[in-house]
């Protein structure tokens, strides 16, 4: 479904035209049937256009004043879909690159101390791989819940393999029931269907032995938590 946007990418007019196009496509495809599919058709058209625009203008988004609005808008249209496509699922990996997570765990700890990121459960990021001991994998999410990153606590390096990598959340998790359901629908279910990348499927990931719950994992996680707590006490200034 073609979308005609005349305004420059990321301009105020761009987002206004996206909204207008969404309404127009819905209006054109709304049928007096029991099931109205116009919302899904319009949302998918807008998302396809936004994905193309971002790929064509990759550097423009970094540091742009409309940075947050782009992700808010993209996520908003994702959640208008009854389910997401394989293309949109894998596109989360393109989006996650804009989280600006540092390469080193040491630098991430500084950001956590400033409240920009937070330590999160890495339960589903500790499946055994041959390259390293996954017991030492630790996960962080950005303050808005969208971006994720996994590090290896022993080496301090970012983990990017398709088995244990961090991914972007279209619908960040929450204890609030409807948000929990959205996270399951738009983030967990697609992972269970397609994995993190097309290199390794979910069916190939989950039979692997998990290092979650091992002595090494518990000891390293406790040590990291104490390190973060100490850093938070010591931190006097944070760059905003």
Strand order of the largest sheet: 1-2-3
Mean pLDDT comes to: 94
Q: Assess the beta-strand content as a share of residues.
A: 5-15%
How helix-rich are the residues, as a percent range? 40-55%
State the end-to-end CA separation: 41 Å
- For the secondary structure, the number of strands is 3
Enumerate how many helices there are, as a single number: 8
Largest sheet: 3 strands, antiparallel
| SSE class | mainly alpha
Oligomer: single chain
CA-atom Rg in angstroms: 20 Å
Q: Uncertain regions: pLDDT < 50 for 5+ in a row?
A: none
Order of helices and strands: HHHHHEEEHHH
Write a concise keyword list for the protein shown above.
single chain, 240 residues, mainly alpha, three-stranded antiparallel beta sheet, 8 helices, 3 strands, globular
Give a verbal description of the structure.
The chain is mainly α and 240 residues long. Helix content is 46%, strand content 6%. The chain has eight helices and three strands; from the N terminus they run αααααβββααα. The chain has helices at residues 12-29, 38-56, 67-78, 86-96, 105-113, 177-194, 202-205, 215-234; strands spanning 117-120, 137-142, 148-152. The chain has a three-stranded antiparallel sheet. A hairpin with a 5-residue loop joins β2 and β3 (148-152). α1 (12-29) packs antiparallel against α2 and α5 (105-113) packs across α8 (215-234). The longest helix has 20 residues, at 215-234. The model has no long low-confidence stretch (mean pLDDT 94).
